[in-house]
Amino acid sequence: SFYWKRFARVYPLHLLTIVLAGIMALVAVAAGLPNRGYYLSDLPSQLLLIHTFPYIELGGWNHPSWSISMEMLAYILAFPILVKFWKNRSNDSIAVLVIVALSVLWVFFGHGTSGWGAVIRVLTNFTIGFAIFKLSESNGGVSKFCTRFVTYFFFAYLAFYISTRLMTVDPLIRAGVLHAFLIPVVLGTVRGTDKIAAKLLGC
Fold first, then answer.
1. Cβ contacts of residue 115 below 8 Å, gap of 6+?
2. Are the C-beta atoms of residues 62 and 18 closer than 8 Å to each other?
3. pLDDT at 198 exceeding the cut of 60
4. Of 35, 124, 73, nearest to 65 (Cα)?
5. Is 49:68 a contact under the CB 8 Å cutoff?
6. CA-to-CA distance for 36 and 29, rounded, in angstroms?
7. What is the pLDDT at residue 115?
8. Which of 24, 113, 157, 194 could make a disulfide contact with 66, Cβ separation 3.0–4.6 Å?
9. Over the stretch 60-94, which tens digit does the pLDDT of each residue have?
10. What's the longest Cα–Cα distance across the chain?
């Protein structure tokens, strides 16, 4: 039921985008413009949402759908494992350790929109999101701390983001610090909807 509802929510728009892209490609070719990556041989992988998987890595028809393709991979690989792993666990220490370890992995290796970089990018963040959810459910010390100081974390994140747009900062440092501020913001907004950050983020 969950898989079907998720698929039904995202796939129709993906299919519509491919149809519109195909129409625009035909019009462009008819007008004498070059074909910019819209090949029929790439279409099956696009329709099956496997076009960004390692060893396939085909762009073209609907480039933003790389995230949907990787999301489907996460639902197939990560989701069942995470549900089983955390079924009878509510230990905040495990969740925090998972978040820290995978955040480091993401900062250094989780880049790109296809191939193994995209796999690491999506699976790490997918698992981090699941760990944040478990922390919010437990209502332990970590969750309460983030809820209490979520506004401060939010404005710290905002200040660092703006400052790094105005000056040159190492991309890895920038990504790591922003991630470190963003995680407590997400956890705090889940737990405390009366906070300023939650209202600004629409939670």
1. 52, 54, 57
2. yes
3. no
4. 73
5. yes
6. 10
7. 87
8. 113
9. 788 888 888 888 888 888 888 888 887 766 678 88
10. 64
For residues 128 and 99, the answer to whether their CB atoms sit within 8 Å is yes
Residue at token pair 């978040």:
99
How do residues 103-131 score in pLDDT, each as one tens digit? 889 888 888 888 899 899 899 999 998 88
Q: Which token pair is 63?
A: 């480039």
Is 29:11 a contact under the CB 8 Å cutoff? no
Q: How many CB atoms neighbour CB 35 within 10 A?
A: 11
Rounded distance between C-alpha atoms, residue 103 and residue 65, angstroms: 23
189 by Cβ neighbours in 10 Å (0-12 / 13-18 / 19+) ranks as: buried
Percent of the residues in the chain that have a pLDDT greater than 70, as a whole number = 91
